[in-house]
Amino acid sequence: MHNVINSYTTAKNISADFELSSVQIKIKGSIVMNGDKFRILADEFKCWYDGKSQWLYTTATDEVNWLEPAREEMEANNPYLAVMRYNTKYRAVLKSTIGTNYVVELISRNPYVDMTNIVLTIDKKTNQIIEAVATMIDDTKQTIKFRNYVMNANLPATTFVFDSKLVPQGIQIIDLR
Question: Which residue blocks in 17-142 are alpha helix, DSSP H?
């Protein structure tokens, strides 16, 4: 796990395509990360987090919610944040080595968190997470598959701040801070 954490913390930023699936949803999109900051773009929703404020647009509500979420809420939205803090929140166990991948299970030290465990498939050569399967407190599972990683691209700080050009014109912003 230390090699995975080092590869992410030493990168200026990271982007990847993802596919999130569970019993209820299937979403494809892209994610860009820089430390705690991230931007997620998908057809169903768009999310920006600048390290303090989060802007979340969903097609279901057709509005943008602007809030300052707790760290635990952010970890539920971005499993990379949970992985980055694995040593304080989770106990890591190497489950197996399959071909060119490691399978590592992160088991929550606190049984009352949203994600009770996360099973990671990690590429041995690049230390990149290929798949994360999170088991939620209600025993449902969410699977996120990552591909097309790009490390250290030059991105402006505004990448992680709400961009009105990426949502339909005239969308209402609800300030919940």
Answer: 71-77, 79-84, 86-89
